Amino acid sequence: MTLNNMPAGPDPVPATLHAPAPQEPAGDALAALRTEIDALDDALQDLLRRRAEAVARLAESRAKAGGPALRPAREAKILRRLLARHAGPLPAAALVRLWREIFAATTAMQAPFAVAVFSQGEDQLRLAREHFGVSTPLRHHPTAARALGAVTAGEAQVAVLPVPDEGAPEADWWTRLDSLRLQVVACLPFWLPRGEERGAAAFAVTAGTAEPTGRDRSLLSVEAMGEHSRAHIAQALAAAGLAPRRLLLHRGPPGAAVPPRALAEVDGFVAADDPRLAAATFARIQPIGAYAVPEGVPEGAPAGAR
Ligand SMILES: O=C(O)C(=O)C[C@]1(C(=O)O)C=C[C@@H](O)C=C1
Questions:
Q1: How much is the pTM?
Q2: What is the 3-state secondary structure (H, E, C) of the chain?
Q3: What is the complex's ipTM, to 2 decimals?
C-alpha cells in the first residue's frame, strides 16, 4: 500500500503534530526582544538592590528599637496587596514564589534565620521549604517539643508544626506555648491557587508576638473550670463575643484530675488586653497567637480543613 491508496479513515497522527511549529521571531525581532528582556533584568536587579538597601536601613533602626526581623504579618500584607494588583501572563504562583524568596533573603540579611520543623510525613517539611525559601536552613525534629525547644534555645527562629487536630500525634503542642512564651504567627501555606484543594497545613511559631493584618484568626488557650464539656466551653466563649470557628479539646492523660484545656480558633485579631478575654468565665484564657487568613482559601474553612 502506498500513501496514495491508503484507505480514508481516522487520521493516525495526533492533531497537535499537524499544528505549525510556533514561529520564532525572525533574527532582528528576536534580538530586539532579548535586548528588551536584558534591560528589564537590569532594572529588576537594580530595584532588588534598592529594596534590600531599604530593608537594611529599616533593620538598623529596628536594632535600636528591638524586635524580631521576621514579621509574618507584614509579609502577608505585602503579598495580599501584590496579589490584588496582579495582572498579565506571569502566573500568580510565580509571583508568590518570588516574594517568598525575597522575604527569606531579607530576613536572613537582618539576623540569623533557621527553621525547626516537626513534620507529619513530608507535609510540614515541604510547607516550610515553600514558605521560607530554598536557602533557609531547615532542621527536622523528631517531636514537636524538640522543635519548640530549638526556638527557645535560640537554635532556630521559627518552629513549623502541624495544625493541631484531635487524635493526631502530639496534637497538644499548643498547650506549651504560653509557658514557653512562644506564639503562633502564621499559617502555611499562605496562598492557594484558586480551585486547589486545601491539603496539609502548618502553623509557624516564634518568640515574637503575633501582629494584626486586617484579616486574621486568633488562637486562644482555654483552661476550663471543672468538668466543662465542649458545648459548654463553646457557649461560654460565644457569650463573651468569642464564638469559636473551631474548638479542640485536650483532656490530659486518663485518670488525671486536670480540667480540660481547649484550643479555640476565633475570627479576628484578639490581643492580650482584649476586654472579651476578661468577660469570659474560665479559670484562664490566653491568646497564643494569630495568623493572616490564607489567600485563596474559601471563607468558612478552618486552618486544617482538607
Ligand atoms: O518590614 C519589615 O519589618 C522588614 O524587615 C522587611 C521585610 C521585607 O523584606 O519586606 C523583611 C522581613 C520581614 O519578615 C518582613 C518584611
A1: 0.87
A2: CCCCCCCCCCCCCCHHHHCCCCCCCCHHHHHHHHHHHHHHHHHHHHHHHHHHHHHHHHHHHHHHHCCCCCCHHHHHHHHHHHHHCCCCCCCHHHHHHHHHHHHHHHHHHHCCCCEEECCCCCHHHHHHHHHHCCCCCEEECCCHHHHHHHHHCCCCCEEEEECCCCCCCCCCHHHHHHHHCCEEEEEECCECCCCCCCCCCEEEEECCCCCCCCCEEEEEEEECCCCCCHHHHHHHHHHCCCCEEEEEEECCCCCCCCCCEEEEEEECCCCCCCHHHHHCCCCEEEEEEEEECCECCCCCCCCCCC
A3: 0.99
